[in-house]
Request: fold
Amino acid sequence: MMSPGMVFPAKRTTAQANTPDAETPANNRTTAQQLLPVQQYASEVAEFLRTHKSASVVIIVSDTGSGKTTQIPQILTDKIFDDYFGGPKRKIAVTQPRRVAAVSVATRVAQEFGCKLGEEVGYSVRFDDMSNPQTKIKYMTDGMLVREAQTAWMLEEYNMIILDEVHERSLHTDVLLALTKKASVRRRKFFDRQDKEACAPLKILLMSATMDIERMRTFWKDAPVLYIPGKTFPVTIKYMPAPVDDYTHTAMVAVFQIHREEDPGDILVFLTGQEEIEEMVRRCRQVAKSLPPQQANIQFVPLYAGLTNEAQMRAVSQTAASAHNGHATMRKVIISTNVAETSITIPGVKYVIDSGRAKHKVFTSATGMEVLKVEKISQAQAWQRTGRAGREQAGVCYRLYTEADFNCWPQHPIPEILRCNLSTVLLQVVEMGIEKPLAFPFFDRPEEENLQAAVDQLEWLGALTQKVESGDLVVETTADGKLMAQFPVDPKYARCILRARAHRCTEELLTIVAMLSSDSPFINPAASRTAAAAAHEKFSSNEGDHVVLLNVWRAFRDQKKGNVKASRAWASQNYINLRNLERAEKVRNQLREVCVRKKIDLSSCGGNTTAVRRSLSEGLFMSAAERLPDGSYITVDTRQTVFLHPASCLFKTKPACVVYGTLIRTAKLYVRELCLVEADWIDAVGKEYFLAMRQRMAEKLAGKTTSAAVVAEKGETSDAMEVDGKNADSVI
DNA sequence: TTGTGGTGT
Reply:
């Protein structure tokens, strides 16, 4: 067992500049604490907006705690709404990357505004719309606004779109950056030329933390910028004098050092994942047992998104200030993933310990492969973590890396739009009437290869057609594509639903696709793994994991005829996560509504699971794999060696041919969410696709005679290719 | 024979 030791030099008294906002001229910390900075600057904000009344885009920059999200929309409605916008008065949309934020901010603003939530001030998030036609300020998730744009891409319902937390660069915020840019130009032209009563110009307000402002100004042709100081307290930064190998161990030593030497205040530790966190919590509790009685006032709580709401609440709720051991107060140590970076705010934190790492998902369009790996975070993320120590009082951030290391890290994380499968977004954008998706004004343009891969994939799925007109790629959605765009799921699953019409099993496919859109219904607690596996056995199938999901759903639905209590008991006995199933139910209802609206036949196949598998094969044919003699598999299109994931119900039976939902590299290159299919089915639906892929591979190989290409030709694993410093993408 | 960073329609 480790012994608590000293990892950091003695306490330094000088507070260093803590966040980038300390450098902005407007920043000072002598503000009256009862007022939010924006309230103090209200007249300046109003003046700024009035001065730039003719600008279609303005930028407001501010860090945590300025109150910009709650106050600025109110300033717009209170002070200048009447004369600020030309044309008829409609709504202000304020987008948020997270639903909880949209809901909670709207609730607070409705109170301040003195109206009932859902009237002048409201919100709109998936499954929950609290707004009406008279709503003036509508908080919404960015994804929700993208959805709305699909039917009205010029966003005529709004006078102004406020994009909040732009610096986070969420996928949908990036889509909106491009879309609103296009819409504002079009609306301006429309307004100038035509009926001024029918359509007002569209104003855009970007709200961001202090970063990347110059690039943003360039993108928006020198948009005016207003800086507002945030309200945070100074945070002292302490770096490691030398690099550490074992950051978990170092984090533990730091925790106990702080506990021994520093003032009261909770500690927030940033690690990378559930397993690592549970392990550290366990070891900390062990060490705490041997602390002297006067130091026993310490407790450890894990925090990650996979926890139940109750467990998350336990981590977030304020430490009971009640005396412990007669006099000392309890110190709480929250050991968390990056969920505590932005999504969850924890009161009472005075110390942050930052491992400097996080798990990131990387997607490769050429192979459809995902990798989830631990990587160094960006400087912006490090500042975000640091800021968590200064919300209520001055704090300290212990960085488990050297200053020299930190200075070498990238300034910003890679935006999501550059590291995800673009097919869903692309179909949405095309359905808005954007015919030349390669010319869409992305703030950060995805690699053309990735965009083209998404276009190709959508074409193979029958969602669109593409052609080249005077050098530009022009695409158009097909009738099926228009239907597919209606479903809020990956287009390949939308295609499965559409194919289910022919096989008379749309009800079953709705269930399966809804279940795939939600987190797994299975709970596998480490302590009772055998019991859980035994309980799950009754849902098993030799036809694949999709049929297993269907079985779970049917059991759940039959249970639901009973009462809530019975439902809970059933879930607990069967190691089933009820929350995830209830979410799947909501998704299913939404998908079903799309079918009703679009007059898509709803039919059920009963026990005929062949029809179900056939439908799946026709949407997932691009993700097919065949068994090799040694029990491994090879993907039919890109000829990569892959392995069935051991958690799949087909792991043992190893059928000759499967389609899969995801291809992910962890210990090996695994395929998951497997469905047993006949090779004939795949050939029938994917013949042209496989021919085209084979031809493309041959062309690439002809052009490249590197050893990597030869290895790829033999169908070796991409491991072998990586030895050459290449990967499968470079040869396919 | 494995494993789930985090969002969202």
